[in-house]
Design goal:
With about 190 residues, the chain is mainly beta. The chain has one helix at about 105-110, and strands at about 10, 15-20, 25-30, 30-40, 45-50, 55, 60-65, 65-70, 75-85, 90, 95-105, 120-125, 130-135, 140, 145-155, 155-160, 165-170, 180, 185-189.
């Protein structure tokens, strides 16, 4: 049986299913890079997870700031994040690992959309969440990479940045509004 590609999962009966994952990360643990695809099942509230293309059964709860309680394939773990001046360490029990997480789609899209284009550019929600606040107003000048809006998702606040240098033409949603992945939040020209 061939390995599934990103976005494909075996259904357990030998059929290959397509799946559009909302969040895709590159996770480096002690220098080894893994691809992590996550999607929230809105009906059950559970996570669907692929690790390097293989489905993994997980359940996770943020027990307290920087502490994650997670069950992987029926086994429970407590994972603690430690932020140091030079890096981030992840503790699983008494084992410590250097960790780095990057959103491959965000990096790729920022490189692809580097400001050489003309015309208005939308800022879109990268995942479902709630608009916490706008950092700028309509007609405000912004620099490429400057924060425009803060969206809260999974109890974490994410700053959505301007794709180009320009002026904010429109704020497309109100503070406090629920948004879905791909919804336009603002337009910069």
């Amino acid at each position: 049986m061939p390995l599934p590609c990103a976005g494909q999962v075996w259904d357990g009966r030998g059929a290959l299913l397509q799946w559009n994952f909302e969040m895709i990360y590159n996770v480096a643990i002690d220098g080894t890079v893994f691809r992590l695809d996550l999607d929230l099942d809105r009906e059950t509230g559970s996570w669907r997870c692929l690790l390097d293309g293989r489905e993994v059964q997980i359940d996770a709860v943020l027990a307290q700031p920087d502490v994650l309680s997670i069950v992987i394939a029926g086994r429970a773990y407590q994972i603690r994040r430690e932020r140091l001046a030079s890096d981030v360490r992840i503790w699983v029990g008494d084992q410590s690992y250097a960790a780095e997480v990057s959103d491959s789609r965000s990096l790729r899209s920022r490189k692809a959309r580097a400001d050489s284009g003309k015309g208005p550019r939308p800022l879109v929600a990268p995942m479902p969440g709630k608009v916490v606040r706008f950092l700028v107003g309509v007609n405000s000048p912004v620099e490429a990479g400057q924060g425009v809006v803060v969206v809260e998702a999974m109890k974490m606040q994410n700053e959505i940045k301007s794709p180009k240098k320009g002026t904010v033409l429109k704020l497309a949603v109100a503070e406090g509004a629920a948004v879905n992945a791909g919804d336009v939040l603002a337009i910069v020209e």
